[in-house]
Amino acid sequence: MRFIEVFEFWPFLDTVVSLAAAFIFGTLVGVERQYRQRTAGLRTNVLVAVGAAAFVDLAMAITGPAEATRVISYVVSGVGFLGAGAIMREGMNVRGLNTAATLWCSAAIGACAGADMIAHAALVTVFVIAGNTLLRPLANAINRKPLDEEASEATYEVTVTVRAGELPRLRTLVADMLEKAHYPAGDLEAHDRGEDLAEIVATLVNTAVNPNEMDAVARRIERLAGVTHASWAISTKD
Question: Where do the coiled-coil regions begin and end (predicted)?
Answer without folding.
Answer: none
